[in-house]
Write a structure and sequence with these properties.
Layout: E1 3-8, H1 14-25, E2 28-30, H2 32-41, H3 46-54, H4 59-62, H5 65-83, E3 87-90, E4 104-110, H6 113-124, H7 128-150, E5 162-165, H8 171-187, H9 203-222
Parallel strand pairs: 1-3, 1-4, 2-3, 4-5
């Protein structure tokens, strides 16, 4: 198993789990920031990306040609990241363009609503009322994005290989649990299924990904 995708509810600590998994496995960690930076290399304006990726789409937006082109590009970027092998990709829809491949473990990270509200309060130093509003907005946007552009129910557990609840276990415990599942799946992996790491190379996309990663690395070192 070479690729792990993580789709997470707001406040469920999915990003933290993804980062820890990448550290433990020595994998690359990829998230929205990387996808966004690569999309810029293809001429997607920042406001376009944020409108599509961060806002719940209206009826007209769902069928807009430009929107569909950007969503398809995001899927290609995710596949390009997966083709690099040994990566953890944290994104609401990373599991979708990779769900047919045998070297991908798709994880959904959830938690009780009350726990997530409390975490958002702590993370952003806000009231419970504001935390509830933030949680509902973010979950709605993620769910509507997947539903509108991919015709899937983001919360459907059947779309994922494993669903974990972080209400009672901390990040390190969840990482250990996912690593155990990863090992079991690797041992029973179906050799007949295609592998994402063997996807046909796209030199233009690979160049855009490399440039985006180099830029993000340089930016991180300068701050």
């Amino acid at each position: 198993m070479s690729i792990i995708t993580i789709s997470r509810e707001s406040g469920a600590r999915g990003s933290y789990i993804g980062q820890k998994l990448a550290e433990r496995l020595g994998y690359f960690y990829m998230d929205r920031e990387v996808i966004h930076e690569v999309s810029l290399e293809y001429g997607v304006r920042q406001d376009e990306f944020e409108r599509i990726y961060e806002q719940a789409p209206g009826i007209l937006e769902r069928y807009g040609r430009r929107n569909r082109e950007i969503v398809q590009l995001i899927g290609r970027i995710i596949q390009g990241l997966a083709r690099r092998d040994n990566v953890v990709i944290v994104s609401r829809d990373a599991f979708i363009p990779l769900r047919e491949y045998g070297d991908v473990l798709s994880v959904r990270v959830a938690a009780a609503r009350s726990v997530r509200i409390h975490r958002l309060q702590q993370d952003h130093d806000i009231s419970a009322r504001k935390a509830r509003t933030m949680l509902d907005r973010m979950d709605s946007e993620r769910g509507k994005y997947v539903g509108a552009y991919h015709g899937l129910n983001w919360a459907d557990s059947g779309l994922y290989d494993i669903c974990v609840n972080t209400s009672k276990l901390d990040v390190d415990q969840m990482v250990e649990l996912i690593l155990r599942v990863l090992k079991l799946i690797e041992e029973g992996n179906d050799a007949k299924r295609p592998l994402a790491c063997n996807l046909e190379a796209d030199p233009i996309l690979d160049k855009a990904i490399n440039e985006a990663l180099n830029l993000l690395e340089a930016t991180a070192h300068s701050t």
